[in-house]
From TrEMBL:
It is an enzyme of class 4 (lyase). Belongs to the FPG family. Keywords: DNA damage, DNA repair, DNA-binding, Endonuclease, Glycosidase, Hydrolase, Lyase, Metal-binding, Multifunctional enzyme, Nuclease, Zinc, Zinc-finger. GO terms for molecular function: class I DNA-(apurinic or apyrimidinic site) endonuclease activity; damaged DNA binding; oxidized pyrimidine nucleobase lesion DNA N-glycosylase activity; zinc ion binding. It catalyses: 2'-deoxyribonucleotide-(2'-deoxyribose 5'-phosphate)-2'-deoxyribonucleotide-DNA = a 3'-end 2'-deoxyribonucleotide-(2,3-dehydro-2,3-deoxyribose 5'-phosphate)-DNA + a 5'-end 5'-phospho-2'-deoxyribonucleoside-DNA + H(+). Residues 2-130 form the Formamidopyrimidine-DNA glycosylase catalytic domain. One of its GO terms (biological process) is base-excision repair. This is DNA-(apurinic or apyrimidinic site) lyase. Residues 225-261 form the FPG-type domain. Coiled coil: none annotated. Its EC number is 4.2.99.18.
Length: 270
C-alpha cells in the first residue's frame, strides 16, 4: 500500500533514472491528456510531497500523480518485459534513451503549470519526509480538534503528510490506544511521541519497499505489530488481533483489544 515512504522511494528512483534526460517517448492515457505530447522536452526532476508525485518537465510543466490504493510507477530498461499489469491499466509512459517509466492504475494524473503546484499540494501539512518537516506544527494540527478520532487525525494529510492506513494502525498500537480514541483523550505527551514515532518510522523505511515497524527484534519474520494480522496473537499480550472494515471506504483498521485502550469502532468502550 503506497504511503509516504513508498512515494519518497518511487520519486528517488524515477529521478535518478530520468532527471536531466530528453524524453523520447510520451504517452498519457487519460482522456483529457490524450493529445498531449511532451516528447523532446527534458525531464527536470521528480519530487515527492506527502503521497503526491510531482514530475517537472522543461517548459514550466508538472505531471502530477497520486497512487491512492494500488497505483504504481515502474521503471524498465530497453528490452525489459513490462510486468506491472495488463496494458489497459497503463495510464502514463515517459521514456528516455535509457529508461521507460510506466504508470499503472493511476487514479490521479494531470498536467499543470509548475507555478500552479500549490493548487494540488498547498493544502498539505508538514511532510514527514520533506525538507520542511516541522514536528511542532504537526502536533498542533493533529490536536486542533480534540473530539476527532486519532486514526482520522493521523490520516488527514492536512495535519501531516505521508501517513496511510498501515502507519495509522501501527502508531495507535505503539501508543497503546485504539484508532477511535478522541485525540483530546490521549495522555499528556503522547501526541508528541506519536508524531516523533511517525517521523522515525517513515525515515527508517524510505530506502526500501519492504516496510517494517518492528525495528528492533531478533525475529526478522516479525515486521508489523497488527496490520494484516487478523486473528493472530498480539506480540505484546497474546490477544487475537481484530480487523474492522470501514463501510464505504477502502480502509481497514487492525488493533489489539487486549492492550489498546479506548473505544472500539462502534464508539463504545473496547
Amino acid at each position: 500500500m503506497p504511503e509516504g515512504d513508498t512515494i519518497w522511494l518511487t520519486a528517488r528512483r524515477l529521478h535518478t533514472a530520468l532527471a536531466g534526460k530528453l524524453l523520447t517517448r510520451s504517452d498519457l492515457r487519460v482522456p483529457r491528456l490524450a493529445t498531449v505530447d511532451v516528447t523532446g522536452r527534458t525531464l527536470l526532476d521528480v519530487t515527492p510531497r506527502g503521497k503526491h508525485l510531482l514530475t517537472r518537465i522543461e517548459g514550466g510543466l508538472t505531471l502530477h500523480s497520486h497512487l491512492r490504493m494500488d497505483g504504481s510507477w515502474r521503471l524498465y530498461t530497453p528490452g525489459e518485459r513490462w510486468n506491472g499489469g495488463p496494458d489497459h491499466q497503463i495510464r502514463a509512459i515517459l521514456g528516455t534513451d535509457t529508461h521507460t517509466a510506466v504508470g499503472y492504475r493511476l487514479p490521479v494524473l494531470e498536467l499543470i503549470r509548475t507555478s500552479e503546484e500549490p493548487s494540488v499540494v498547498g493544502h498539505l501539512g508538514p511532510d514527514l519526509l520533506g525538507p520542511d518537516w516541522d514536528a511542532e506544527e504537526a502536533v498542533r494540527r493533529v490536536c486542533a480538534d480534540p473530539a476527532r478520532p486519532l486514526g482520522e487525525a493521523l490520516l488527514d494529510q492536512r495535519n501531516l503528510a505521508g501517513i496511510g492506513n498501515v502507519y495509522k494502525c501501527e502508531l495507535a498500537f505503539m501508543a497503546r490506544v485504539t484508532p477511535w480514541l478522541p485525540v483530546g483523550e490521549l495522555p499528556p505527551g503522547v501526541p508528541e511521541k506519536l508524531v516523533a514515532a511517525a517521523h522515525r518510522l517513515l525515515e527508517a523505511n524510505k530506502e526500501r519497499f519492504d516496510r517494517r515497524t518492528i525495528l528492533t527484534t531478533d525475529r526478522p519474520d516479525r515486521k508489523l505489530y497488527v496490520y494484516s494480522r487478523k486473528n493472530h496473537p498480539c506480540y505484546r499480550c497474546g490477544t487475537l488481533v481484530r480487523r474492522q472494515d470501514e463501510v464505504g471506504r477502502d480502509r481497514v483498521s487492525y488493533w489489539c483489544p487486549g492492550c489498546q485502550s479506548g473505544p472500539g469502532p462502534d464508539g463504545r468502550p473496547g
